[in-house]
Amino acid sequence: MPRPEVLERVKAVEAEADEIVADAEAEREEIIAEARRQADEIRSEAEAEADELEEKRLAEAREEIEARREEILEEGQATREELVDEAQERSDEAVEYALTAFTEAVHAQT
């Protein structure tokens, strides 16, 4: 092969190699960009799922707190009613005692 043809062939092969390298670099950049986009999408989905789970757990905790609050209020009301009944009984007993003591004191003076 004559020298000018060899040089032309080498230049053609080099140009083809440069084109292959440029195409590979472009493809690499596209792959990296797509990977970043997918990573951002996955991160966004994970954050949304975490937010949703947090809201769900907060709602469940609020329900549990409200249920326990109602239980405490009911227990408190029952205790209050028992105490009122007991106080009423003692009040009746105290009035009876006071009347008896007063009557005895009046009879004792006469």
UniProtKB/TrEMBL annotation:
Q: Where are the annotated segments for Disordered?
A: 72-91
Entries under Gene3D superfamilies matching the protein: 1.20.5.2950
Q: Which residues form a coiled coil?
A: none
InterPro entries reported in the protein's UniProt record = ATP_synth_B-like_membr_sf (IPR028987), ATPase_A1A0-cplx_hsu (IPR014275)
Name under which the protein is recorded: ATP synthase archaeal subunit H
